[in-house]
Structure formats: structure tokens, C-alpha cells
Design brief:
2 domains; 11 helices; FAD/NAD(P)-binding domain; alpha/beta; four-stranded parallel β-sheet; Rossmann fold; disordered C terminus
């Protein structure tokens, strides 16, 4: 029995504040559940692009993510999409667009193809409105504009690679680089993306930037800028486009990502507004299980451990990158909070020596889930009847290579939340999206 202090039970505890945890918490709270969100820190959204990748490669470049998802699910029974299905992913995309209408746009059946910080083209399903002018077509003229005092953005690299890249539809663009010197802060010669993002929140700074850039633009050019166009003011990009008289688009930088910060802050604020209790800055150190049922999670809070109890639990802790899975020197992989059975351990060596070849099998290791997202063992039996999983803790996919991690997180979070809400039929339905419908 835990000696940690007890708190009044919440109906649902969600563990983890990445995309899966925040979507599950929002969905549950909007459906009437009493939700506590436990996290040791800021989740992984700020390391991403601020977009939602459903499926980018399967293995070739994907243009219709939902259609390709269904084909992938049919071909690979071990893949999370085979269990989650297309309907919860579609519902999740609709839910996110309704929840954050000023921050995410897109079509589940048409990937955007957007420039990266090295001038390659990446597929993504939902993007921020400030990015979509970067979905280029044959013959487009592009000016890649840098800021001399900004780290990690090299306009010549982007422009030259973009000019030599064939677009997914076979077209080509012409791109040219230039930089301007508009300080984000007086006397600072080496500024971060976040410093510039805060500067772009200021209309006065935007006017100074426009005065420096506008005379250097040529007719009909689309303007590509580093993704630092405001952190609080999500309409800053639109103001710049109007003042410049040219379409503009943001190009995400290496992490930490300003668009990722926008997405993280927006989902966190929505959760707070929906009544989610967020306990931040403490690590989950143990779980209390009685007669097979999860009763509580103990957090390493200051002063003494603290236990949080609930009726249902959603495990959204991520994978190796967050410490939810660990590998010891003997090659043993462990899920660190519950000691859950893992898939992918019996498929041969977990690591191979061809580091520039196929992805390491290790990164497909994770928990198994049933259709309702409850954790199951190798035989398909439920491990704990009130424990659900969402996001990167679920095994069976090469999320980075496929660009499927966000779609897996989103679909599993929606399915887990809706499965929990279905346990109380009298509860109101989730706000911002309908119940999953069959997609054919």
C-alpha cells in the first residue's frame, strides 16, 4: 500500500502532455469528464513542426494520407493504424480544426507539401495558416528571406536546394535568397527564434521589417520566412503579407519550434478552460494496482510523494525519447511506470549495424492495445481494465520514417477518450467534433 498522501479522486487521469495527452484531456473534459493531467514537464510538441503528420511515406511519398492510411492498415496487422482505424483519425483531425480554427487547417485526404529549413519538401496533413502559401506549384517564384541575427536559418541553403528540387507533382520553382538586418532587441547580435517571435508580436517591429524587405522583392514572388512570425499574435503573418503585398509562408526551424510552442500553448489553454487540472513539474514514479485494477499514480512532488487516484487512466507518456521506455545494457526493454508487456521484442535483433539503412527495430517496440485503446498482452487479453494507451507508447510503427506519429497520437487519443466517455452514457458528447463515423 502506498504511503503517499491521498487526494480526492478524479474520474480520469491522463499521464503525459504531448499531442496525445493534450488531445485526450481536452476531449474527455469537453465530454463532461473530471480530468487531471499529470506531467513531468512540457511535452514534445515544441520539438515538432507545429503541424499534424498523419502519413507522409508508405514507403513512397503520400499525397492522400487517409486513403494511404487505410491501405497501410490493411497490409500490416501489427501497425497501430490497423487497430485504431481511419475513423478516429478523421474524427481527430476534424476535432483539432474545430478546437483550434485559427491555428490548424487542412484536408485529411490531401497532404500539403511544404519546404523545410534545408530546402527539401515534406508532406504533412494539417498545417498552420502561416505555412500554407509554401505549398508551391510549378513555376512559382520564391524569395527566401533571412534575418542576419537569427540562429539556425540559412536562406541560401534553402533557396538553392528548393530550386534544384522537383516538386511532388513534377514541377519546379525558382528561389533566390537574401537577408535583412532588423534587430529583435537592441544590442543583441545572436538572437533565438523565440526572441524574434516575441518581436514579431509587436506591430511596430513588423513595420520596420516590412520597410527593410519590401524594396528588395520582385513582382509575383512568394516570400518564405523563418517560422518566427509571432508567438502570441497568430495573425502576425497575415499583417506582414498585407503590408508586403506578397503571399508569405513560414519555414519551421530546428527545435525548439515556435509553431510547436503555439500549438502546445493553445491546446494547454483549451484544456485549462475546459476544467482540466494540470499538475506540472513532477515525475510519475509508481502505480498502485489492486486486484488488477489501477487505483493511483504516485508523483515525486516536492516534500513528499503524492498519489493521484481516479477511475480510468490514459497512458500518453511517449516512447524512448521521453523515458517511458528504457533499454538496459543487457538489451532488456522496460515500460517504466507499470511494467507493461511489450510488442516487438521477439522479432529478432533490436539493433543492427547499418545505421544509414533501415530504421532500427528497437523503435517499433511499445505496448499493444485493443480497439478501445486498453492495453493488452500478446494473447489480446486486457492487462488492466481501466488503463488505456495513446501516442508514442504504442508499438508497431516507425513513426519518424513514416511521418505517422501525430496521426497515431491523435487517433488513439480520440479513441481512448471516447471509449472512456462511453462508459457513462448520460455524459454529454465531446465538443468540437462528432463521434467517429465509419469511413469507406
Amino acid at each position: 500500500m502506498s504511503t503517499a498522501a491521498n487526494t480526492p479522486a478524479s474520474r480520469v487521469i491522463v499521464i503525459g502532455t504531448g499531442l496525445a495527452g493534450l488531445v485526450a484531456a481536452n476531449r474527455l473534459a469537453s465530454g463532461g469528464a473530471d480530468v487531471t493531467l499529470l506531467t513531468k514537464g512540457i511535452g514534445g510538441l515544441q520539438l515538432g513542426q507545429g503541424t499534424i503528420d498523419v502519413l507522409g511515406y508508405a514507403p513512397d511519398r503520400v499525397t492522400n494520407p487517409l486513403l494511404s492510411l487505410m491501405a497501410l492498415a490493411s497490409a500490416r496487422a501489427e501497425h497501430p493504424y490497423a487497430t485504431i482505424g481511419a475513423a478516429p483519425v478523421h474524427t481527430g483531425l476534424d476535432y483539432l480544426k474545430r478546437l483550434l480554427p485559427d491555428l490548424l487547417v487542412g484536408d485529411p485526404e490531401a497532404n500539403y507539401q511544404l519546404p523545410t529549413a534545408v530546402g527539401a519538401i515534406r508532406p504533412t496533413c494539417l498545417a498552420q495558416p502561416s505555412m500554407v502559401a509554401g505549398h508551391l506549384s510549378d513555376g512559382a517564384k520564391v524569395a527566401i528571406v533571412g534575418l542576419r541575427r537569427l540562429k539556425d536559418f540559412y536562406p541560401r541553403l534553402v533557396a538553392e536546394n528548393l530550386s534544384r528540387t522537383t516538386l511532388p507533382d513534377g514541377g519546379r520553382v525558382s528561389a533566390r535568397p537574401f537577408s535583412v538586418d532588423v534587430p529583435a532587441r537592441d544590442g543583441e547580435v545572436d538572437s533565438t527564434g523565440l526572441t524574434y517571435a516575441r518581436a514579431f508580436d509587436d506591430p511596430g517591429f513588423r513595420s520596420r521589417f516590412v520597410a527593410a524587405v519590401k524594396p528588395l522583392l520582385e513582382p509575383d514572388e512568394i516570400v518564405g520566412l523563418p517560422a518566427v512570425l509571432g508567438i502570441k499574435d497568430t495573425s502576425a503573418w497575415r499583417d506582414l503579407a498585407e503590408k508586403l503585398g506578397h503571399p508569405v509562408f513560414e519555414i519551421p526551424l530546428p527545435p525548439p519550434s515556435v509553431p510547436g510552442m503555439r500549438l502546445n500553448e493553445a491546446l494547454t489553454e483549451k484544456a485549462r478552460a475546459a476544467g482540466v487540472r494540470i499538475v506540472n513539474g513532477s515525475r510519475a514514479i509508481s502505480a498502485r494496482v489492486e486486484d488488477g485494477v489501477v487505483r493511483g499514480i504516485t508523483m515525486a512532488t516536492a516534500g513528499a510523494p503524492h498519489e493521484y487516484t481516479a477511475d480510468e487512466f490514459v497512458l500518453a507518456t511517449g516512447g524512448f525519447e521521453s523515458g517511458a521506455l528504457t533499454l538496459d545494457s543487457y538489451g532488456n526493454v522496460t515500460e517504466t511506470l507499470f511494467g507493461l508487456p511489450l510488442a516487438g521484442l521477439d522479432d529478432g535483433p533490436l539493433l543492427h549495424g547499418d545505421y544509414w539503412g533501415s530504421e532500427q527495430p528497437l523503435f517499433k517496440v511499445g505496448v499493444r492495445v485493443g480497439p478501445d485503446m486498453r492495453v493488452v498482452d500478446a494473447a489480446g487479453a486486457v492487462v488492466h481494465p481501466n488503463l488505456y494507451a495513446a501516442g508514442g507508447i504504442i508499438g508497431g510503427s516507425s513513426r519518424w520514417g513514416e511521418k505517422s506519429g501525430d496521426g497515431i497520437a491523435l487517433g488513439s487519443a480520440i479513441q481512448a477518450a471516447d471509449s472512456i466517455l462511453a462508459l457513462t452514457p448520460s455524459a454529454p458528447g465531446p465538443v468540437g467534433g462528432s463521434t467517429p463515423e465509419e469511413i469507406s
